[in-house]
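Form 12-C: Joint structure prediction
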Amino acid sequence: MNLLSAFAYLLSSVFFVFGLKMLSSPKSARRGNGVAALGMLIAIVVTLVDQKILDFTYIVAGLLIGSAIGVFLAVKIQMTSMPQMVGILNGFGGGASTLVAFAEYLRLSGDPSLTVWRGGDVGLDILITIVLSVLIGTVTFVGSAVASAKLHGIMRSAPILYPMQKQSNAAMLLLILLLGVFFVLDPSRWYLLILIVLVSIALGVTSVIPIGGADMPVVISLMNSYSGLAGATTGFILSNNVLIISGTLVGTSGIILTSIMCKAMNRSLANVLFAGVGAEYDPTVQATAQRTVIRYTAEDAAYILESAQSVVIVPGYGLAVAQAQHVLQDLVNLLTQKGIQARYAIHPVAGRMPGHMNVLLAEANAPYDILMELEQINDDFQNTDVALVIGANDVVNPAARTKKDSPLYGMPILNVDYARTVMVCKRSLNPGFAGEDNDLFYDKKTMMVFGDAKATVTQLVHLLKK
Amino acid sequence: MLETWMVSVYIFVLATFVGIEVISKVPPLLHTPLMSGSNAISGITLVGSLIAAGEGHGGLSVFLGLIAVIFATINVVGGFLVTDRMLKMFRKEPSKKN
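Section 2 - Result
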């Protein structure tokens, strides 16, 4: 590699860092994405010009086919399906890493038909990173495919559990490492690399199937991190710094998001990955409380909303399931026109992946300066007239603050119970995912409006228009 | 050989710190575009794929390279485009259609 192309790779690394940095504000974010894309273009062009490329046929074919599929996915995908989309993209990144590691191994072997090993002087470091790249890449590919299938409803989203699950996963990982050691000791044993792929495929499946649908945000974030690490290991194999830098950036990004999601769900990563929460979830068993709630109609709710000065809306995933975000934004517009301050309060786990609810609301034309984060809005609830909770439950359960024995205890929640009036739109009184009954619903200042989120909000809009 | 590897490790460690510094400043508002955008960046494996696919001596190695190029290109093109599609929707003012 000559000096000029080394410099160009450095330039594209700088562009990646700047692109990510510009994502810190919604004003510059779109340009930031463009800057990162430009960095990628530079890296690709430099590679095509500088590296010892002898035949462009396969490259052009691959770029064309890949671009066509990429454009198709990006244009067609629904915003509600974004977690699956990111999952699938992660998977392709991981798969590419595995394939590159294999191709590089074949090249190093000196004899592509693998009958004679002529790669005598291949360093230990390269061989180790080949094993790691194959392992991480394959687990990312298969794990992401399973996660996406669960999110898309192709596979049952409930956890699939069987005895000795953790132990057998650990055993598989150990087996891979053992195979790896034998491979590194004698790299002519190519079949060991194939075995590593096969066991990694199994591990990718068995490590994701015990994780429930509601925990998928964590899995997707984690796979995001893996796909970055897979890229970084490829960089180690090829001694290519731009791969190492960008792979590492993505790896850290995924890990940070994973830990944010875990904190917001009040669970440890180990608990998410191994506990199989939600497997034997039965709502009828949990709903034992004999307390009564006061039912209100949409008319009552509209009356209260109209006389309020400030309204904070807490959307949950139930809102997106009911496709009610557009009509909800109509409601917000109506309230704003009447001079009522209306904002959204968004809990980190409100959607199916980090930041998902913000995207869904942005799609419904909600301006981003009324999309408030938990820390921004929580002190405002005591000065809020109406907190309107739609399709959310656990994230507004006061038990997280008070009940020491609750599974929710310690989880950061939106303090809607500090508002003067709380309105809850819900289908039923069933407890949320954590199985904890919600005292908020029985509070004197809480108005329960039962029914489908979309139907209720549509009715509210209709009533307020009069 | 070991020196190259050590340099790689240096870069890996330092890039981790840059990553933590930059990523922790991204607001939760933009976490989904962050994931899809960083995802596109991790498609940088494409560089490695191109080298593998362009070796020219045919056979399995080039075939693997071809599949790798397809996978990584989906990752890159799909990732950047879908991120742009999302970021386009984030506006300060509600659009005038309503």
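Section 3 - Comments
Residues 59-89 of chain B form the longest helix (31 residues). The mean pLDDT of chain B is 88.
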